[in-house]
Write a structure and sequence with these properties.
single chain, alpha/beta, 5 helices
């Protein structure tokens, strides 16, 4: 069990993705770079997978070197956390402040990096 409240940093990205999602896998190197650059400054990432095959999910985590917390109920689009966040397409990163409030969503690449840098500078 992973508690979102217990996983919050200064800034937390809740990243909805899946091993079968090409755009998600293409974005993963950007997430890895963000984590390496900003984790020591207070960034946490929680990966929430919309996978249904545990083996493929775990292989993608290892191959893409996703070293942060990863969770999945292996329920595909019926993932309860995705329903709570009203996720309709992936990748879908949600940026949360230290209190857990969503302050940005669906940013990727340079836009996401700029938002994280801005929030951590405050």
């Amino acid at each position: 069990m992973v508690s979102l409240k217990g996983s919050l940093g200064k800034v937390t990205i809740v990243d909805f993705w899946a091993s079968w999602c090409g755009p998600c896998r293409a974005e993963n190197p950007n997430m890895v770079a963000l984590y390496k650059e900003f984790h020591s400054k207070g960034l946490n990432i929680i990966g929430v997978s919309l996978d249904k095959d545990a083996k493929k999910w775990k292989e993608a985590i290892a191959k893409d070197q996703l070293t942060w917390t990863q969770v999945s109920n292996l329920k595909y689009w019926d993932e309860p956390i995705a329903k709570q966040y009203q996720v309709e397409s992936i990748p879908a990163p949600f940026v949360l402040d230290a209190s857990g409030k969503v302050v940005a969503k669906n940013l990727v690449g340079a836009e996401l990096r700029a938002k994280i840098a801005e929030l951590l500078a405050q």
